[in-house]
Amino acid sequence: MRLAAPKPSKRANVRFIDTNVPLYAVLPHEDEQAKTKRANEILLAGEIALSVQVLQEFYTQATHERRPGRLTPEQATSAIESLRRFPVQDITVGLLLAATETSKRFQISYWDAAIIEAARAQGCEIVLSEDLGDGQDYGGVRVLNPFAAS
Predict the structure, then answer these.
(1) Among 4, 33, 36, 50, which is disulfide-ready with 28 (CB 3.0 to 4.6 Å)?
(2) Which residues of 58-91 are buried (b: 16+ CB within 10 A; e: fewer)?
(3) Domains (ranges, CATH) in the chain?
(4) Cα dihedral 145/132/17/118 (nearest 10)
(5) 48 strand-pairing partners
(6) Residue 129: is it exposed, middle or buried by C-beta count within 10 angstroms (0-12/13-18/19+)?
(7) Terminus-to-terminus CA distance in the chain, angstroms?
(8) What is the rounded CA–CA span in Å between residue 76 and residue 104?
(9) Distance of CA 19 to the CA centre of its chain
(10) SS3 (DSSP) at 121
């Protein structure tokens, strides 16, 4: 049984960002300067949305003890507060159930499907992600790798 969810209004220019965008922006790596520059361009341009899942993953990855140049918990929390200026999709039961269906339909992980469904809930037709298939369309939500030319 599928629960009906309210139809989001389309956000023509708003793109949904996956966790790697804010990670590259705040954790510059010598070998990935072009990605750092591109991530900061995306954040400065605005017109983006994200989800609680993205914020959770950001915190976990940014503070991980094995990550070179990792952030302190306080720095990561400050970065999350800054990211909250953009629309943030909450995790809901409806989103969870939609993600389970998307996971089955497209044979992707639940976590990737939750990103797709959070974007859909925000009315975004584009997800900027390095981790999902560049150009792949997931039922009206298309993934673009913003770092492909980097």
Answers:
(1) 36
(2) bbebbbeeeeeeebeeeebeebbeebeebebbee
(3) 15-144 (3.40.50.1010)
(4) 150
(5) 15
(6) buried
(7) 43
(8) 33
(9) 5
(10) helix
Tokens of 46: 């605005």
SS3 21: helix
pTM of the model: 0.86
How confident is the model over 44-61, as pLDDT tens digits?
988 999 999 999 999 999
What is the band of 89 on the pLDDT scale with cuts at 50, 70, 90? very high
Spatial separation of the C-alpha atoms in residues 149 and 97, rounded to whole Å: 35
